[in-house]
Design brief:
Elements: E1 4-12, H1 18-26, E2 44-50, E3 53-59, H2 69-84, E4 87-93, H3 100-112, E5 117-123, H4 130-143, E6 149-151, H5 160-170, H6 188-204, E7 212-221, E8 227-235, H7 238-245, H8 250-267, E9 271-279, H9 287-292
Parallel strand pairs: 1-3, 1-4, 4-5, 5-6, 8-9
Antiparallel strand pairs: 2-3, 7-8
Length: 301
């Protein structure tokens, strides 16, 4: 029996559907999915099994024009993920076509991913007509020597099996890197924090800037099989704390209930979730916050 294993980097612009595709490939919700851009901060890895192959996905932050230290660290993490991977998948949106952002990513691939095998996945194919799709496929393949092109809908699952099958067959031969039943190499504390952050993002929409982070401070396994999870939400300003708490604490209560329900479903047991909101004006400049997110503080310089 020949086993294969290796790393696959999913790269693309923010909101191209990388997290949705990762979750579809892995068959579980490992990377948070929201309609706000830039929700994936750390290099979350999901593990998918396909036949005798183990595909370890590196879900990189979206590639965009960085402005702040956090942005720069995220973009650096994305390119590091691509350069370190065995295979790279560039995900673009069918209805947006070859944007300036996609062109910049192609330039980046030429500079930083030389020697890497890159496949193109055109997502959200249900949003455009066949002739538009064909023209985009031709244009993209003229711009970069992709090994394969896949037309997919990450949300509906169309074409995803073919992509996963191709990835599985093109990974290096070798032993599996993770136990078969392990879906993500992120510590559970971090997955729990990401779930809470997703609920905050969905609940608050435009009200809150991205200057918040969630950390799991304590995880206690109880004798009855349940887990007590204490989390802190750090915000940059006092005014943000009020937005998070909401009128009579309604917002934080709703976020807590939604996050707890999802955690219970994910873990398959009862969860007691306790959230605190703390103001930390300079958290964006603290190296330990970056370590928590799996980013390198120095990359933000």
């Amino acid at each position: 029996m020949t086993t294969r294993a290796g790393f696959v980097a999913l790269i693309g612009e923010p909101n191209a559907g990388k997290s949705t595709l990762l979750n579809r490939m892995v068959g579980a919700k490992v990377s948070i999915v929201t309609h706000k851009v830039q929700t994936t901060r750390a290099r979350i890895r999901g593990v998918a099994m396909e036949g005798e192959s183990q595909i370890v996905f590196v879900d990189t932050p979206g590639l965009f024009r960085p402005r702040r230290r956090l942005d720069r660290a995220m973009v650096a993490a994305a390119w590091t993920g691509a350069a370190d991977a065995d295979l790279v998948v560039l995900l673009i949106e069918a209805h947006r076509g070859m944007t300036h952002g996609v062109e910049a990513i192609l330039d980046g691939l030429n500079e930083r991913a030389q020697g890497r095998r890159v496949a193109l996945a055109i997502n959200k194919i249900d949003r455009v007509k066949a002739e538009v799709l064909l023209a985009l496929t031709k244009k993209m393949n003229e711009a970069y020597p992709f090994e394969e092109t896949f037309l997919i809908s990450a949300e509906k699952g169309h074409g995803v099996d073919a992509l996963r099958h191709w990835l599985a067959g093109n990974l290096p031969e070798g032993p599996w890197l993770y136990p078969e039943d392990q879906i993500a190499d992120l510590p559970m504390r971090m997955i729990a924090a990401e779930m809470t952050r997703e609920k905050l993002t969905l609940r608050l929409h435009q009200e809150l800037p991205y200057q918040l982070t969630v950390e799991t401070e304590n995880w206690e396994e109880r004798k009855d099989g349940s887990a007590r999870i204490d989390q802190v939400i750090y915000v940059a300003r006092d005014g943000h704390k009020g937005i998070l708490l909401g009128h009579k604490g309604e917002t934080i209560k709703a976020v807590s209930q939604a996050a707890r329900a999802e955690l219970e479903e994910f873990l398959g047991r009862k969860v007691h979730l306790f959230l605190q909101v703390k103001v930390r004006p300079n958290w964006l400049e603290e190296s330990e916050r970056y370590s928590e997110m799996g980013l390198d503080f120095k990359d933000g310089n």
